[in-house]
Amino acid sequence: MENTVSEPEAAPESDVRFPIVLRGYDRRQVDEYVRVAEKRVDRHEKARRVAERRLAKAQVPAPRAPEPDGAAGLGKRIEKILQVAKTEAAEIKEQARKESEVLLAAAEKTVADAENAAAETGRAAQRDAQLVISRAEEEAAAIRATHRAVLDQLGRIVDAVEELRDRFGGEAGADAESPAEPATADSVPSPA
After folding, report:
1. 172 — pLDDT class (breaks 50, 70, 90)
2. DSSP β-ladder status, 24-25 and 20-21
3. pLDDT tens-digit profile of 19-43?
4. In angstroms, how far is the first alpha carbon of the chain from the final one?
5. Which residues, at least 6 apart from 10, have a Cβ–Cβ distance to it below 8 Å?
6. pLDDT band at 56, cuts 50/70/90?
7. SS3 state at 181
8. Could you tell me the CA-to-CA distances from 129 to 115, 116, 119, 139 in Å, in that order?
9. What letter does residue 26 receive in the DSSP assignment?
């Protein structure tokens, strides 16, 4: 008789084969297999119980925080609301500060631009006024020069007329009326 089951964990239950004997299976071999299987079941049952005890110990419920009563919970909620309000107020204040800095910078730039434009306009007006004055002085000087030239020419004409009169005046007749004296360069007023 051959014993195929020698160790408790030798083969899984589905691979166990019993040799066929004259009237069925070998009874000793079947008994041995059943005994080994029962030991295996007992071992697994013990391991399961140990695991369940360990699991039960590991699953101790965490202590629950007591529910806040109305007054105590209200204080905490108000504190949270105030904290949120302070945070939002700080954010709004910071945003307003940034916006005011931007607006102030823009206003300062506008003022600086206006001052620069006013200064440039003043300088341009001063240049234009100086140019007008300079042109007026040049024109006045040209008019004075032209006036002097005309007066000089008139003086030469008067001198020529007097010379002609002196030359031809005695020949035309002493009884003739002498024409009115023409204006001389000395008698014509000069512009100041």
Report:
1. low
2. antiparallel
3. 666 777 778 888 899 999 999 999 9
4. 164
5. 4
6. confident
7. coil
8. 21, 20, 15, 15
9. -
Question: Which tokens in the block code for residue 13?
Answer: 């239950």
Please give the sequence-ordered ranges of beta strands (E in DSSP) within the chain, or none if there are none: 20-21, 24-25
Give Rg (Cα) of the chain: 68
How many whole angstroms from its chain centre is CA 147?
A: 70
Q: Average pLDDT for residues 50-74, to the nearest whole number?
A: 70
In whole angstroms, what separates CA 148 from the centre of its chain? 71
| Mean pLDDT, rounded, for 148-175 | 83
Distance CA 185, CA 155 (A): 5
Cα–Cα distance for residue pair 34/132, rounded to 1 Å: 134
If one counts every other C-beta atom within 10 angstroms of the C-beta of residue 104, the result is 10
pLDDT at 179: 53
Rounded Cα distance between 13 and 136, Å, is 132
Are 184 and 155 spatial neighbours (Cβ–Cβ below 8 Å)?
yes
